[in-house]
Amino acid sequence: MTPTPRALRVLEIISFLLLVAAVWMVFFFAPLEAVMGAVQKVFYFHVANAWVGMLGFIAAGISGIAYLRTHDMKWDIVEVAAVEISLVFFLIAIVTGSIWAYPVWNTWWTWDPRLTTAAILELIYIAYMLLRQGIEDPERRARFGAVYTLIGGLSVPLTFMSIRLFRTIHPVVVGGSNAAAQGGFDMSPRMLQSMLFSILVFSVIFITLFWHRIRIGVLAQTVEQLKLKLTQ
Amino acid sequence: MLFLDVPPDTTRFFYSAYAIIFVTLTFYVISLIVRWNNLRNELDALNELEKDSK
C-alpha cells in the first residue's frame, strides 16, 4: 500500500483551513437574523451537510451503474465509501435541523413531507450498510449494492423536491417560497455568501474524506484477498 | 416569535448544533484513522505469515 499521496495531504490542510474560515463566517460575518436570533445560523452548516449528503448518495448510485456495466470491484469500493460518508453528513443535517426546529417550530420533530422523506432516505442507506454485511460473497454483495444504490438513489430527488412539491412547513430559502413555511427568511448578501461558502467547504471536506475512505476500502480488499490466498 | 423587539435568545441551540457537528465529524475522522491502522497492522501480520509459509 502506497503512503498517503501528497495531494491528499494538501487537501487535508485546505479542508481544515476552509473549515476554520467557514466557522468564522458563521460566527462573525453572517448577520444575526431579527426574528429567530442565533439559531438561524445553524442553517449554514445544515444546508451544506444536507447538500454533500445528497451528493454522496447520487455518487453512490453512479458508482452502482459503473459497477453493473464493468463488474470492476473498484466501483463497489467507491460506492460504499460514498454511502458511508453521506450517512454521516446527512445525519448531521437531520439532527441540526431538529435543533433549529425546536425554538422555531416549538417541536423537535414533525412528520412533515421534507422531514419524513429525509428520515426515509437516511434509513434506506442504513439498511444498505446492514444488508451488505449479511452477504459473504464479494461479487454478489457488490451486485446487490449496485442495484440497491441505483433504486435508493431515486429517493434523493424526491427528498430534495419535497419542499417544492408538497405542502410543508419546511422553509424554501433558495429559489422559491412556501405559503405554509414557518421559519423562512429573506437572505441578505452576507447570509448568501456564508451559505455558499459553507457548501463549498463541506464539498471539499467530503472529497477529502471520500478519498481517505476509498483508500481504506482498497486496503480492506487487499487484506481480504491475502487472507483468501493464505487459507487456500 | 413574531412581534418581538429584540431577537429571542436561541444561543444555546446554536452552540448545541455546532457542538454536535464537530463531535460527529471528529468521531468519524477518528474511526477512519483507527480502521486504517487496524488494516495496516493486519496486512503486516498477513505478510509475515505469508513469508513464514514460504
Mean residue pLDDT of chain A? 92
N-to-C terminal Cα separation of chain A, in Å?
A: 23 Å
Strand content of chain B: under 5%
Q: Which class of secondary structure composition applies to the elements of chain B? A: mainly alpha
Compressed to H and E, one letter per element, the order of chain B equals H
Name the overall outline of chain B.
Answer: rod-shaped
Shape of chain A: globular
β-sheet strand percentage of chain A: under 5%
Flag low-confidence runs of chain A. none
The SSE order of chain A reads HHHHHHH
Main sheet makeup of chain B = none
Q: Report the mean per-residue pLDDT of chain B as an integer.
A: 90
Oligomer: heterodimer
The helix-and-strand class of chain A reads: mainly alpha
The percent range for helix content of chain B is over 70%
What does the radius of gyration of chain A come to?
Answer: 20 Å
Low-pLDDT regions of chain B: none
Number of H- or I-type helical stretches of chain A: 7
Biggest β-sheet of chain A: count, sense, barrel?
none
